[in-house]
Specification:
It comes from Podilymbus podiceps. Keywords: Membrane, Transmembrane, Transmembrane helix. Pfam families: Anoctamin (PF04547). By secondary structure, this protein is an alpha+beta fold. The chain folds into two domains: about 15-160, no CATH class; about 165-270, no CATH class. Helices cover about 50% and strands about 10% of the residues. The protein contains twelve helices and eight strands. It has a four-stranded antiparallel sheet with strand order 2-3-1-8. A hairpin with an 8-residue loop joins strand 4 and strand 5. The protein is elongated and about 80 Å long. It starts with a helix and ends in an 8-residue tail after the last helix.
Length: about 280
């Protein structure tokens, strides 16, 4: 209930990531972490709020547009380039920010998930100094602070906020739509490339299953009751499935490559899409 209550609360106009704490958290813990975030990540804007129903404290975290631009440069976020500068996708660079589409528009240059990814990157890379400790928690030098506090239960949860306006639009164009193509570009902008690629594959796979379903139904209808006829139909259906599976895989390779190129992940190095290992020493 606490999670759902926070999700429906809109106390500030600009809040990208929410960090909540157990109701037993003392002031010293809140001030200690708040001080470390403000000193270690000056790019972030943190507001402390208290939920009157759940009696839980929370940090409302966001960042200015200029800070997000520097963060995009730091993590190598890929953004579309204006047609007059060659088009396509390129890792963002503050030195050449003028070449990117919608760079002049603060509201539309970053999607909500891009803003949240940048803030999450900063939060997960807040490192402890040598000898630092909080109560009975002793940090190693260079150890990420927030993942450790979350694992110890000091931080209850860290999660991005949804945009109800976009969710309502996706509800109409995607969830409630019947016999219409999935809005994959909108899904990609809101949920990210991984989620969009999954639903692109799922839709392609579901459509491709129509062919073996129809062919199998026809065979079943015209198959005689004798054993010889059934054996022949089984062999024919097996050959059809082998051909169908081959064509399905090759076509998906092409379709997946098109989406990857369109969404800017076709030439992304493998190490940049692997999950980070913040605990590694």
């Amino acid at each position: 209930m606490s999670h759902k209550a926070w999700m429906k609360t809109v106390p500030t106009e600009n809040c990208d990531v929410l960090m909540t704490f157990p109701d037993t958290t003392d002031d010293h813990t809140l001030l200690w972490l708040l001080n470390h975030i403000r000193l270690g990540i000056p790019e972030l804007i943190v507001q402390v709020r208290h939920h009157k129903h759940t009696r839980v404290y929370a940090f409302f975290v966001t960042a200015t547009y200029e800070s997000l631009l520097r963060g995009a440069d730091e993590i190598g976020l890929r953004k579309p380039v204006k047609a007059e500068f060659g088009g396509g996708m390129r890792s963002f660079s503050c030195e050449e920010d003028y070449i990117y589409e919608n760079i002049e528009n603060e509201l539309y240059f970053f999607t909500s998930q891009e803003r949240q990814n940048i803030i999450r990157y900063w939060l997960e890379n807040l490192r402890a100094k040598q000898g630092e400790s909080l109560h009975n928690i002793h940090f190693l030098e260079g150890q990420p602070i927030i993942p450790e506090l979350a694992a110890r239960g000091v931080i209850q949860q860290v999660f991005p906020l949804h945009e109800q306006r976009i969710l309502k639009r996706l509800m109409k164009s995607w969830v409630q739509a019947v016999c219409e193509a999935q809005p994959l570009d909108e899904i990609c902008d809101y949920f990210g490339v991984k989620i969009a690629m999954y639903f692109a594959w799922l839709g392609f796979y579901t459509s491709a299953m129509v062919y073996p379903a129809v062919f199998g139904s026809i065979l079943y209808t015209f198959t005689e009751s004798d054993q010889t006829s059934q054996d022949v139909c089984c062999v024919v259906f097996a050959i059809f499935n082998v051909i169908w599976a081959t064509l399905f895989l090759e076509e998906w390779k092409r379709r997946g490559a098109e989406f990857a190129y369109k969404w800017g992940t076709l030439d992304t190095p493998a190490e940049s899409i692997e999950e980070p290992r913040p605990q590694f020493r």
